[in-house]
Amino acid sequence: MPKNLQSQMQDYKRSTATLKPWSRQSQPIAPVEILVNRLQRGCTVDPIVRLETHTYGPGRAVSIYHFTVIQEGEKLVIPVQVNPVVHRLIEQYRLEVVPFVAESKADS
């Protein structure tokens, strides 16, 4: 039997009540839920989002958006594959999308 809306909302609130773990070493591209969770927990988002596109042939491309979130002075870059939630966040926060430029080893 499907859950009613109130039960679904309670499950959602419970699932976002704690900070979700994410590690770039184990998961190079984060699920969008990680980004949304950080924003719900009070992180701010940098107004610039970097867009990285990988083209694999005609009609085959993957877009990765690199969001920088800030909490208590610490920055974390969260790469997320494009999806409707990403587009909504960019519009909602009025973020500027610029091309992604990889840092070279000499810059580090």
Q: Can you describe what's shown?
A:
This protein has 108 residues and is α+β, with helices and mostly antiparallel strands. The protein is built from 3 helices and 5 strands. Strands 1, 2, 3, 4 and 5 form a 5-stranded mixed β-sheet that branches.
Chart the SSEs and their pairings:
Elements: H1 5-16, H2 32-40, E1 44-45, E2 48-57, E3 60-71, E4 74-81, H3 84-92, E5 96-99
Parallel strand pairs: 2-5
Antiparallel strand pairs: 1-3, 2-3, 3-4
Outline of the structure:
By secondary structure, this protein is α+β, with helices and mostly antiparallel strands.
Mean pLDDT: 84
The ordered string of helix (H) and strand (E) elements is: HHEEEEHE
CATH class of the domain at 28-100: Alpha Beta
* Class inferred from helices and paired strands: alpha+beta
Main sheet specs:
5 strands, mixed
Distinctive features:
single chain; 108 residues; alpha+beta; Signal recognition particle alu RNA binding heterodimer, srp9/1; five-stranded mixed sheet; 3 helices; disordered C terminus
